[in-house]
Amino acid sequence: MVFSLTRGCWSEKILAERRERAARRGRHTSEGKCSRINMKLYLNETVPYLEQPPSPLEFYREWIGPNKPCIIRNSFSHWPALHKWNPSYLREAVGSKEISVAVTPTGYADAVHGDRFVMPEERRMTFSSLLDVVEQKEEGAGVFYVQKQCSNLTEELPELTGDLETHIPWMSEALGKLPDAVNFWLGEASAVTSMHKDHYENLYCVISGEKQFILIPPSDRPFIPYELYQPATFHQRKDGTFEVVDEECADKVPWIPLDPLNPDLERYPDYRLARPLHCTVRAGEMLYLPSLWFHHVRQSHGCIAVNFWYDMEFDIKYNYFHLLESLSRTVGVL
């Protein structure tokens, strides 16, 4: 009798596990099918190229409204920055200016390290000192990257604004607003931007070198893992090594622990259902990165770029995405 009851309990447990596995397979099958349908009906399998900048109406109708990325050629070929911004010119123009530089031991700033979300050490240094590191004229412990995103081009390097436009006219007309920020980027090849999303319509212009992007649409949010982390900051010791210092009295930060270059599919099996797009943006090209798209970024050594952040419209698309995030948290994705 005891044996029979025990066997019955085990049978129920086995059946429950089988039902759970079947439900998971069914969910994965249906979610994967939805992701593939999105790719066929809503998205392209690769990021499309436009050979010239579109009209404001065309760009809004074909790209901003549908929330689809594209790479635009010949959109800023008239900027003097394309042929002027080399190290010797930059040393002469802004070499003595102090700027904010992110310094990390591995090149991953604002990223998950162990059980912490770790931000870079923000170091003030002259532009010439940064170029010495990038050009390897001076050895620097750590990885250096100009990545401050509070319109650092106009705030810290206004001397360079005469070499480009401080907004993109057809984008400003399409959205009926000017950009919230114009950011300058320069760093080493080891500098990596971890996977994240922004609430901005982003135009990313590569001046020299190239950037490699991994893009994942907002509709794949259920497959993107988030976890909560204690925020911390890198701090370089006198001997050149780095320590991680916790941010006191700070709330935990939700962040993506997954590295799309080497995803841990055993820990995050749902990610295999995502449909990432890979693209390389070269000098003279502009990437339109729509709001709420997840993105991971690498670069060639010494790559220089400028991006324009236009505030997104918090309209029905945002409401749908917010609903998708809420449902993802409900099923345990966070």
From TrEMBL:
SUPFAM superfamilies found in the cross-reference section: Clavaminate synthase-like
Cofactor: Fe(2+)
Gene Ontology terms: cellular component: cytoplasm; nucleus
GO molecular function: hydrolase activity; metal ion binding; peptidyl-lysine 3-dioxygenase activity
PROSITE patterns in UniProt: JMJC (PS51184)
Pfam families, per database record: Cupin_8 (PF13621)
Keywords, alphabetical: Cytoplasm, Disulfide bond, Hydrolase, Iron, Metal-binding, Nucleus, Oxidoreductase
EC nos: 1.14.11.63
This protein's record includes keyword Repressor: no
Entry's localization field: Cytoplasm; Nucleus
Keyword Metal-binding: yes
Transmembrane segments: none
Location of the JmjC domain: 146-325
Superkingdom of source: Eukaryota
Entry function: Bifunctional enzyme that acts both as an endopeptidase and 2-oxoglutarate-dependent monooxygenase. Endopeptidase that cleaves histones N-terminal tails at the carboxyl side of methylated arginine or lysine residues, to generate 'tailless nucleosomes', which may trigger transcription elongation. Preferentially recognizes and cleaves monomethylated and dimethylated arginine residues of histones H2, H3 and H4. After initial cleavage, continues to digest histones tails via its aminopeptidase activity. Additionally, may play a role in protein biosynthesis by modifying the translation machinery.
Subunit structure, interactors included: Homodimer; disulfide-linked. Interacts with DRG1 and DRG2.
UniProt protein name: Bifunctional peptidase and (3S)-lysyl hydroxylase JMJD7
Native source species: Synaphobranchus kaupii (Kaup's arrowtooth eel)
